[in-house]
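Quick start: read one record
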Amino acid sequence: MSDEPAVGLVVTGIGTVGADGFDFRTALGRHGYKYLPAASQYFLAAAKRALAQAGPDALEAVGPEERGAAVGTNSAAVALHHTMDRTVTTTGAGDLSPVTAPYFSINLFGSRLATEHDLKGFNLTFTSPRVAGLEALQTGQRALAAGRARRLLAGATEEALPDGEPGAGTSEAGAVALVLEPEPAARSRGVAALGRVGVRSFFLPPKAAASAEGAEQAAVLLRDALDALGHRPDRPLAVTAVLDGSPVGEAMAAALDEKALGGRALAGKPERVPAGAGALEPVARVAAALGAPEGHPHAVVTAAAEGNAAVCLITPGAASAVPDAPAGAEASAGSVQPMNGRRRASDR
């Protein structure tokens, strides 16, 4: 292991891929990718774009055992599982494709990424409803802080749900990948820090959310998360909330005002984005906040009907050179087309 401290993580590369018009031959190459599940293709392409922005030596500067990956998904395997089920019930398990059969395991969707980029530090998959992509960022950064790696590829990938599947009308399809590394490493390579991100996840029980005290309980959890992430109440905060209409989503939405958030000054009215049936939209909003002109810290808030919730605090651009988080806090490191409701972000 190198002596370079894995602290003060910054984002140095962002890659986004949408399903509309996606061609793996153009994005990845003509050979070796045809039989990969679409969600794996999307994340490989997003990672390729993120690494291109971060620079060719973003990973090569450290050994394979110092590189890690973390990806979140809710629906990457659903369409494949449907196909496999039909094969088994129609003609028998003997007709399953040996090329795609291993992907019955959700943990294999990131395996090709680890192989291509020699990521031997760790390779993690998260599936918590809606927050899986943010949990990938959170846990990946914790792993770097614990010395398990020095570089991190993290994000989310989704494939559209089959027709008739619950949530199919708001399917997400595409991927977002971020490259994170210690700020001194980025500075020594002459690469600009796009910003810092820090994530805090928590749980709001649906019954509690539906009660008369639901909004107040949500506000307490949000305040605690922002405090833990190092946000100072006197700093204006832009907020994007990716929420559904469940009791949990409504309680979280009701908690997003200056009074409920402990007197925090909000930079404008919180933007509420309809949540899709996956974990992609919150990470896409984080990427958009990182790519926006420098300004206020930005919080992306999301929650699922099941009670899973998370907050990502983004400090974009050069303003991230001085982290807000106090020692010991869980800190990290434009417009965007929603990746839900069958509306997919264009390739870029």
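Strands lie at 9-18, 67-72, 122-126, 151-158, 174-182, 195-203, 238-243, 271-274, 298-303, 308-316.
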